[in-house]
Amino acid sequence: MVFKRGQVTMFIILAILIVSIVALVFIFKDDLFGKRVPSEISPIYNTLSLCLEKDLATGVSVLESQGGHIYLPEYEAASEYMPFSSQLDFLGNPIPYWYYVSGNNIEREQVPSKEDMQNELEEFMETRIRSCSFDTYYLEGYSILMDKPKASVVIKDKQVSLTMDMDFSVSREEDSHVIKEHKIVLDSELGSLYNSALNVYEEEQASLFLEEQGVDILRSYAPVDGVEISCSPKIWIASEIFRDLQNAIEANTLALKNGDDKKEYFEMDIPEIPSKQRVRFLNSKNWSYSFEVLPSDNGILVANPVGNQQGMGILGFCYVPYHFVYSMKYPVLVQVISGEEIFQFPLAVVIQRNQPRKVSGGEAIGLEDTELCKDKNTLTKVRVYDSNLKPVEGYISYECLGAKCNIGMTTGGKISEEFPQCINGFINVRAEGYKDESVMYSTNEEGGLSIILTKLYDIPIQLKLDKQNYNKDAIISFVSDDYSETVIYPQQTSVKLGEGKYEVQVYIYKNSSLTLGATKQEQCVTVPRSSIFGMIGLTKEECFEVEVPAQILSKALAGGGKQNYTFSETELKNSRVIDISAESFPSPNSLEQMQMNDILFEGTPVVVNLR
Fold first, then answer.
1. Do 483 and 576 belong together in one domain?
2. Does 17 share its domain with 41?
3. pLDDT tens-digit map of 44-84
4. Are 428 and 494 contained in the same domain?
């Protein structure tokens, strides 16, 4: 057979290609087909791989649950004036705030980058690999050694990949194997969830939509400003306003959701959130809050009428104008959810003087009255003791003409600092486990004073109704001139009290199905009469109907009373329990009986004993 020269050349080229392909396959066989593990150590290497995969999943879960942190930043405590520490305690899990205001009133951010998360996950993996257990194989005579690990992590939208450089040596008798590189790929949406969380955070920082909603809640559930036709003062209780706001904030925050566009009030238009992901906003009234309202007097808001003062009868009617200024601070936990994965981070919502906070890039928000507090020029020494004259650590502030200045924390029960000058201002002391104390003190010249605090004792309560132990719904209040505590019984079964005279009030509630029908009432007011001749002082009466809708009362007062009792420190220190005995009232089956029970409450004493 005779081959032509062209055919020979073709066979030579084909042979070279085959040899090249075989060589390439041999060189890159691990990359093309995966690393081949000798069969005799395959179970051992599978154990290592399972450890790496489990630890990687754990690390990713911690990153998602702790706002992109595995190792928590340095803890910063809250203060008397700012409720936020650097972490939110959510179901026992500390989560660093992405935005908060520190105890010394400085805005702070703790937003990790994706590189930060990768670095922390790498450190986590390098630490955890040492805990992988090979005890079963040691018993079979294997020697297993792991060299110093070096991890490399890449977080993608749908995957988290790990490459671990570490000599993994397995030997038994004459047989020995070393594997140097280990790779794990975990299906996880950590990267995508983080990107969405970052979008939510940046949108909040740019538009302050949570603060805007907070202002809406404030104006819907609290008296802010307005005018009412009345000749009687309008009175509100600050604690009741705060309770209503807490409930409203909790419910309205949970109602927020992300959408494609803002079609509804509770739908947030947050860009670049994948359709399969949803954003949830959480708040709890049990989390730390700060609430202030001015003007107020001992927790009472009063608006006085205009028109009934001497010389103002020319108006011909009375009206009550009011304007109150609120500052609120509360946390919101943001969760971005896809399937079973949740990435979450908390941030602080700050409303100052009825307005959303202003993003100031880490500057102080300004709780203090700067005109008063910027000129601290009078050296004042304050010493704080308990009743046994032992030093107590407390937080000191100074209040003058409605403005409050932060001074600082005592050391060894004492502090020596510059105070602003003021006549008849008040030095306030707050210490853990003691009653707050406020002492009038003028700082027009250098000086000092000692303040003795009243220690609080945590005493269990045992409530009795008609001489029998009672463990159903009741509210027990201990009210004194300078300190009050309320216990929701039986959810709470102890109270913190200090020495002093208290009025002990017991309200016992039972189930009720009493229905109050809808009613209409006519109310009339006197208003100025219009006159084409411009005459003033003429009035007329205008009447209108007020509708009260029907409602069902599920709980009604069915027992209790009140009693004055003076608790001495010796009694509180040596007592194991406070026994409170109350009497029941007739079942409230009508509106008249409810009103009668209110009257009975005022005249029925309870019995208080310490033992």
1. yes
2. no
3. 888 889 999 999 999 999 999 999 999 998 888 876 666 77
4. no
With beta carbons less than 8 A apart as the criterion, state whether 467 and 456 touch. Answer: no
Whether residues 423 and 276 share a domain: the answer is no
User: 321, 306 in Cβ contact below 8 A?
Assistant: yes
Residues 6+ apart with CB under 8 A from 348: 84, 97, 99, 100, 101, 329, 330, 331, 332
214 and 345 in a single domain? The answer is yes
Euclidean distance between CA atoms 480 and 505, whole angstroms = 11
Contact 563, 351 (CB under 8 A): no
Contact between 447 and 431 under an 8 Å Cβ cutoff? The reply is no
How many whole angstroms separate alpha carbon 15 and alpha carbon 19? Answer: 6
Residue 319 per-residue DSSP state: B
Taking the C-alpha atoms of residue 496 and residue 434, their distance in angstroms, rounded to an integer, is 9
| Number of domains, the chain | 5
Q: List the domain range (segments joined by +) for residue 473.
A: 457-610
What CATH code is carried by the domain that includes residue 421?
A: 2.60.40.2190
Is residue 466 located within the same domain as residue 521?
yes
Question: Looking at the structure, do residues 390 and 538 belong to the same domain, yes or no?
Answer: no
Q: What pLDDT sits at residue 470?
A: 92
- Compute the C-alpha angle 285/216/102, nearest 5°: 55
Provide the whole-model pTM.
Answer: 0.55
**Shared-domain flag, residues 280 and 164:** no
Is residue 83, in this structure, part of any structural domain at all?
Answer: no
Give the Cα-Cα-Cα angle 475, 476, 477 (nearest 5 degrees).
Answer: 120
8 A C-beta contact, residue 98 and residue 87 = no
- Spatial separation of the C-alpha atoms in residues 125 and 150, rounded to whole Å: 9
Helix, strand, coil percent values for the chain (each to nearest 5): 25, 40, 35
By the 8 A CB rule, do 151 and 125 touch? yes
